[in-house]
Amino acid sequence: MIEHAELAAWQQGWWAGALRRNSPNFAPRPVGEAVTLAVIHNISLPPFVYGGDAVEALFTNRIAADEADPFLRSLTALRVSSHFLVRRCGAVLQFVSCDDMAFHAGASHFRGRSGCNAFSVGIELEGCDFEPFTSAQYASLLNLLAAIGSVYPVAAVCGHQHIAPGRKSDPGHFFDWPRLQQAGLPLDLTVQAA
């Protein structure tokens, strides 16, 4: 049974523990579709640069066509977003209501189903495949996953690499899956076949 305090932390799919940044890159979930999967990603923009506002700009379609950085300029046509971003300091930002589907997984498969956006939440960790994430990020991630699981029937947590093998490698080999397992989360790290 869901406790009143847990419900109070959520308003129409928006979590009170996150800073809200509205993204237009979402669509309604299919009728009757439940959130049963949490997908962990990583992102840094430009690559290996942390702390700026480029990820927020990407997820809110604010990267300008005249952007000085050529890598960022190449992203202007993308229309993507995760539900959440966990910064290196542990701050959590939310871009899309969990009641809607964010455009985070792309071509993906999980347990025989394609199109994971329809039944998942996407959580980006500020980082890359090539270095460890911070303790503050893990603390915030565990808190966030507990909050999501308190109101949505999440049956599994996995990485983008598991649902889009060969196309994606995040969150990468530095991600500490045992830490999530020790917290009792329902991990499914099986690489899914297309």
From TrEMBL:
It is found in: Cytoplasm. SMART domains: Ami_2. Residues 23-172 form the N-acetylmuramoyl-L-alanine amidase domain. Keywords: Cell wall biogenesis/degradation, Cytoplasm, Hydrolase, Metal-binding, Zinc. Its cofactor is Zn(2+). One of its GO terms (cellular component) is cytoplasm. One of its GO terms (molecular function) is N-acetylmuramoyl-L-alanine amidase activity. The keyword Cytoplasm applies. Its EC number is 3.5.1.28. InterPro entries: Amidase/PGRP_sf (IPR036505), Amidase_domain (IPR002502), NAMLAA_amidase_2 (IPR051206). It catalyses: Hydrolyzes the link between N-acetylmuramoyl residues and L-amino acid residues in certain cell-wall glycopeptides. GO terms for biological process: cell wall organization; peptidoglycan catabolic process; peptidoglycan turnover. Pfam families: Amidase_2. It comes from the Bacteria. Belongs to the N-acetylmuramoyl-L-alanine amidase 2 family. This is 1,6-anhydro-N-acetylmuramyl-L-alanine amidase AmpD. It comes from Paralysiella testudinis.
